[in-house]
Specification:
globular; three-stranded antiparallel β-sheet; alpha+beta; about 200 residues; six-stranded antiparallel β-sheet
């Protein structure tokens, strides 16, 4: 597995990522080996990341983040604006949310991970894009409000077609997949409740 030497990472980024990985892993009751199996990243590499000995590549971080039920932004966001009582996201503001899925673009509309339980994003899903064959499962809840086009979700084997103006709300621990079966981009406001 490739890694970024400590000297090339932003100051304290390696330590920040490692602490967050360690904290989440412990909170979920996972051993290094268990997280390694879930994420397809070696336990030794995860241990190095947790100890601040290496900064993971984006691919490695995506795998670990997915296994821990968090977006990559959770691990790399700085806790800025701690004194603000609210976070305002402008209509034209773009804060990309990194995802391993192809054909979907996410732009955050919510505050930083450390401070809020609710995550929200403006989503654009190209025709034919899909979450993949393997159903996803993670802690928390999702709520998807389609604003244009159509999305199709399968939740615990049941199919839901969501057209513009319709909303789907489900628990993340139920096996689920999504796809755009249409011929135009689907747009949506995609919300996720982050577990504590």
């Amino acid at each position: 597995m490739s890694q970024v030497p400590r000297t090339q990472g932003p100051p304290c980024l390696d330590v920040s990522i490692g602490l967050k990985v360690f904290s989440l892993r412990k909170r979920m009751g996972l051993s290094l080996q268990q997280l390694g199996e879930r994420s397809d990243v070696s336990a030794a590499a995860i241990h190095k990341i947790e100890q601040g000995g290496m900064v993971p590549t984006i691919t490695t971080l995506l795998k670990i983040a997915s296994a821990l039920g968090r977006p990559v932004s959770y691990f790399v966001e700085e806790d800025i604006g701690q004194d603000d009582v609210a976070v305002l996201t402008g209509a034209d503001e773009t804060r990309p949310v990194y995802t391993s899925h192809k054909g979907i673009t996410l732009n955050s509309i919510s505050g930083p991970y450390g401070r809020y339980l609710l995550a929200g994003a403006r989503a654009t899903v190209v025709p034919g894009a899909t979450s993949g064959r393997k159903p996803m499962q993670h802690p928390g809840e999702e709520l998807v409000h389609v604003t244009g086009g159509v999305l199709e979700f399968t939740v615990t084997g049941q199919s839901y077609r969501i057209e513009a103006g319709n909303t789907l709300h489900f628990r993340g621990d139920q096996p689920h997949t999504w796809r755009n079966p249409g011929t135009v981009d689907a747009t949506a406001i995609w919300m996720a409740l982050r577990p504590q």
